[in-house]
Amino acid sequence: MDRLRIAAAAIAVAFAAPAHAACDLFGFTMVRASPHVLLFQTPEGTPGIVNGNTVAVIGNDAALVLDPGQFPTEAERVLAEIRKLTPAPVKYVVYSHWHGDHVVAGSVYREAFPGAKIVAHPFTIAQAAKTFTPDYVEKTRKGIEEARAYYAGKRPAASDDERAWIDASMDCMAPYLAELPRSNAVAADTPVEKRLDVDLGGVVASIRHLGAGNTPGDLVVWVPADRLLATGDIIVHPAPYAIGSDLAPWPATIDAMRALSPATFVPGHGPVMRDDRYIRDVRELLASTQAQVEALKAKGATKEEMVARLDTRAFRERHIHTPMQRQAFEKFFVRSAVAHVMSQ
């Protein structure tokens, strides 16, 4: 039997992080996604500060890690769990895209495995170079302090839903700032424009660019032996992210994902999915939103008119249920999608 088929029984173990006031952003749940793949699932990504999932593909000779995440302390704890399960080194660290909640803790893996290849799409490499400059920590600290002041001023007149979202986001600012000095998104050294297949010993991980989604440079990891696809933020549950995203090519990328016929999807945020029902709902939402905002723009609608008139009821009724989810959906998807179309 493959000695790295972690355990015969399914794993679903929660690891609580040290308490951070009322912030529930830290900690993770380790889930067996498939025989060779573990998901380190982070808390629901609905406050203003988020942390992406980390995925580990483990073979007999090596491991691949997709997305180290945002917080070095959490990345160290994830790596400690990986090391308990296998003596194999992490030889590949893949950035699904350039956003900080997926890449900032990359230094943890570089320090532990200096010879590991750090893989990203050329767009991700270029965008990261513009973003994670020597003054990144100081700029980010200033941005958080400005956000704190802005939301403190906005809170008294906010709705109950938005007040809950503001409070949860502000509760996470102090622990986020505590992690910030160690933040170091190590530059990728292995560009993948279309596809790179790596043999980890007994299992192949296929790193692919199937098209633009959350960003133009999104990479996915396909594990054919397990029929598992790790999607990065092409798929986010329960509220998709579309911050700065072009919705137009995104449905075709989802079609390319589904054409692989995965039995399991692992999203950039959210739980393991054993069918494509949610993926199909996201595709429908993207296509419908793109068509609606283009039509509204052609009629001269303002940004606020678009936000008010955009019909997303079908998706919201299926997937958006709590105040945090409602706020995340409006801020991270609806308003972001409208803002992008208005900027074109």
Task: Tell me what you see in this structure.
The longest helix is centred in the last third of the chain and has 22 residues, at 277-298. Helix 9 crosses helix 12. The chain has a domain at 12-132 and 182-281: Ribonuclease Z/Hydroxyacylglutathione hydrolase-like (Metallo-beta-lactamase, Chain A, 4-Layer Sandwich). The protein has helices spanning 72-85, 100-103, 106-112, 122-131, 136-154, 160-171, 173-179, 250-259, 277-298, 303-309, 313-319, 323-343; strands at 12-15, 28-34, 37-41, 54-58, 63-66, 90-94, 117-120, 190-191, 195-199, 204-208, 220-223, 228-236, 264-269. The protein is 41% helix and 19% strand. The radius of gyration is 20 Å and the shape is globular. It contains twelve helices and 13 strands. The chain is α/β, with parallel strands linked by helices and 344 residues long. Strand 9 and strand 10 (204-208) form a beta hairpin. The strands form two sheets. The chain has an eight-stranded mixed sheet. A five-stranded mixed sheet has the order 9-10-11-12-13, covered by helices on one side.
Helix tally equals 12
Q: Quick one: biggest sheet? A: 8 strands, mixed
- Known CATH architecture of the domain at 12-132 and 182-281: 4-Layer Sandwich
Order of H and E elements: EEEEEHEHHEHHHHEEEEEHEHHHH
Task: Bin the helical content.
Answer: 40-55%
How many beta-strand runs?
Answer: 13
Q: Structural class given helices, strands, pairing?
A: alpha/beta
Instruction: Give unreliable regions as ranges.
Output: 1-10
Computed CA radius of gyration, to the nearest angstrom: 20 Å
CATH topology of the domain at 12-132 and 182-281: Metallo-beta-lactamase, Chain A
Mean pLDDT: 93
Class of the domain at 12-132 and 182-281 in CATH?
Alpha Beta
